[in-house]
Amino acid sequence: MEQDRVRRFEQAAELLPPRLRRLAMEVPDERKARAEELRLRVRMPLTVLTAEGERPVAAADRDALVTRDDVERVVAGVTEYSRYASAEALRQGFLPVRGGFRLGVCGTAVLRDGAVCSMKDFSSLALRIVHERVGVGAELVPRLFDAAGRFRSTLILSPPGGGKTTLLRDLIRCLSLGGSDRRALRVAVVDERSEIAVSVDGCAQTELGVHTDVLDGCPKALGIPMVLRAMSPQIIAVDEITAAADVDAVCAAANCGVGLLATIHADGVAELTRKPLWRALLAAEVFSRAIVIAVGDGERRYAVEDVPCSEASARD
Amino acid sequence: MLRGVGAGLILCAALLTRRALLGERRERQRTRRALAAAFETMEAEIRLLLTPLPTLLRRGCGAESRAFFETVSIALRRGGDPSAAWREAAEALPLPRNERESLALLGGRLGGDEESVCAALSLAARTLRACYDDAERRRGQDERLTTALCLSAGLMLVILLI
């Protein structure tokens, strides 16, 4: 496991310019294994982000400082010198990277008609090392089915950084592969921010099972009806429901008899009833199960709970 | 007899030179046409599908432009600077200096946004098409001139040597 994480770190370091790559490779294996991100800021040292915080890869000498050219080279390499092809992703502030990584970018936003149309003069990069935790959801999957063996639409809840996407990814894989006691299901993933499948050139860079169809880079509100029409899925999986349009699309899909699997930034089921958007979602009675992720002592604990649909409806 | 053979050989050499010159001209035309078509295809692919540069380079277009695109594609795969490779490949093209220079400039604009890349490709394609059309218009005249020059030079040499 640790060796695998070290290998992932080294793969991520390959994306850096040679000077910074050399420094990143010199990081002790124990720290490599715990690394979540590599962070580059112009005129600042290259740092490694772990659960304990951010630390520079080397003593702050001139060699360890990131230059504007370094940042531009990383972006150029990741976009394969085709910035136009990554314009939409750049507009949203991230780039999916071959190998299942993700590059968050920060710089000067280019505005047109009041909307961000591109990004220029990159100043900071966050190279996220996406760690797949294959099998993390396996024990939870049987609890997402009712007595008749039907999938119950499920929400995954946790605060930011709790591992929602990691769990979602593995649940998709488990549901798509099926098991000895349940058949495989067709899962459609609407991957608006390329975070679930991390698709590059149309190929998912993460393990999502053999019966999974991925619609990459498409807003959820548009993508859910598209996959519903085109792929006749049994389950639609989405990450981060944040807008009323997403809720409407999810409700429309649920009315067509499709199971839903989604994540939401929330501490627990109780918090869902406090925010208007989630109240609308609960009132629609789309989701009947929730997996709540609690993080403590560096460990993640998963609790499967019933979603109080009727209570929410009554309150509304 | 020997003089006759010598004169014949000189005239043959003149005709071969003519053939080589006309062959070079034809190759220039083929290169212009292939590159213009490739740039137009690239522009269309970028506008319609936002196809990334490595894929466009891999596909290339026509035998005449394949070497050019392969050079840049290899440099890109090795993590090199594609602009520099593009300039280098443009310098090796069998085209007049001014055309090679304008093609080399295009390499520096490939890293831009969709509009600027498409505009640069479109301009390069238009320039090459204009050069191609211009050369086609002058083809008869150029061929006659080349034939006349080669044969007269050969005949003059024959007369001088005899």
Task: Output the keywords.
heterodimer, A: 316 residues, alpha/beta, Beta-Lactamase, Rossmann fold, seven-stranded mixed β-sheet, six-stranded antiparallel β-sheet, 32% helix, B: 162 residues, mainly alpha, 7 helices, 86% helix, 0% strand
Short account of what is shown:
The complex is a heterodimer of chains A (316) and B (162). Chain A is α/β, with parallel strands linked by helices and 316 residues long.
Description:
Chain A is of the alpha/beta class and 316 residues long. Chain A is built from eleven helices and 13 strands. In chain A, helix 7 packs parallel to helix 8, helix 8 packs parallel to helix 10 and helix 10 crosses helix 11. The C terminus of chain A is likely disordered. In chain A, a hairpin with a 2-residue loop joins strand 5 and strand 6. The N and C termini of chain A lie far apart (48 Å). With 162 residues, chain B is mainly alpha-helical. The mean pLDDT of chain B is 88. Chain B has seven helices and no strands.
CATH topology of the largest domain in chain A: Rossmann fold
Determine the fraction of residues in helical runs of chain A and give it as a percent range: 25-40%
Mean pLDDT of chain B: 88
Strand content of chain B: under 5%
Query: What is the CATH superfamily label of the largest domain in chain A?
Result: P-loop containing nucleotide triphosphate hydrolases
Gyration radius of chain A (Cα, Å) is 20 Å
Query: Treating each run of at least 4 consecutive H or I residues as one helix, how many helices of chain B?
Result: 7
What is the count of structural domains of chain A? 2
- Tell me about the largest β-sheet of chain A: 7 strands, mixed
Cα shape of chain A: globular
Q: Biggest β-sheet of chain B: count, sense, barrel? A: none
Which chains have the largest interface? A-B, 12 and 16 residues
Class by SSE composition of chain B: mainly alpha
Rg on CA atoms of chain B, Å = 21 Å
Query: Are there runs of chain B of 5+ residues with pLDDT below 50, and where?
Result: none
